[in-house]
Write a structure and sequence with these properties.
Length: 217
């Protein structure tokens, strides 16, 4: 097994070094994709020992994830874990995610939706989950969680077109269409930055794209 951990990041100088240092004990192949940051994210990521790839301009989370995944595969990765750069995903879950991949194609992290999670995000996530089930007959509890693991054989089957926050939804829809074997894995989540992540506007866009399914071939 040769797992790589991909961390898309933009303006995460506050958290990125701690995230990398906390992740090292669970995997040495850590890739940070700096998606057009205007702060010290890249410098701090390199200093912390991560492989650091840089987008000169902000292309979006989906693009950053794709850059990281495809670089990892070129380096011989067999398993891919994607996690956020703001410290909300606990690296101690990585061994469990990899273990779950023994019998599955993809593992979806499922947050416990704590009270610390902004209400708008909790409501929006539930609405998106129900819409996803209604229109695509895919029933998962947390379609917007960015903590996921999949094999390199799975990647071409879920390879997304989305550049933005639609990436998680598109991955999920593709996994359903390809009839991939998946499992949900509960994770603990800590919200350090209340207003970061998807906004109401992002949620509206996600639902609109889901209904149209224009990105899914």
């Amino acid at each position: 097994m040769n797992p790589y951990i991909i961390i898309p990041a933009r303006n995460e100088e506050k958290h990125i070094a701690a995230v990398i240092n906390n992740t090292k004990q669970y995997g040495q192949n850590i890739i940070v994709v700096d998606d057009g940051s205007t702060d010290q994210t890249s410098i701090l990521a390199k200093q912390a020992g991560a492989i650091t790839l840089t987008h000169k301009i902000n292309l979006g989370k989906g693009s950053a994830m794709k850059t990281g995944c495809e670089y990892a595969i070129q380096q011989g990765a067999t398993h891919l874990i994607v996690m956020d750069a703001d410290g909300q995903h606990d690296p101690k879950e990585i061994p469990s995610l990899l273990q779950a991949l023994t019998n599955h194609d993809i593992v979806f992290g499922t947050r416990n939706m704590p009270n610390s999670m902004p209400f708008v995000m909790r409501f929006g996530n539930k609405f998106i989950n129900k819409t996803l089930h209604f229109f695509h007959n895919i029933n998962i509890e947390d379609s917007q969680c960015g903590y996921r693991a999949f094999t390199t054989q799975t990647y071409p089957k879920i390879r997304w077109d989305a550049q933005d926050y639609f990436v998680e939804t598109e991955m999920t829809i593709r996994a359903g269409k390809q009839k991939l074997k998946y499992v949900q894995h509960p994770i603990q989540t800590i919200y350090n930055d209340k207003y970061k992540g998807t906004t109401i506007f992002d949620g509206i866009q996600i639902v609109a794209k889901m209904l149209g399914s224009k990105l899914i071939k």
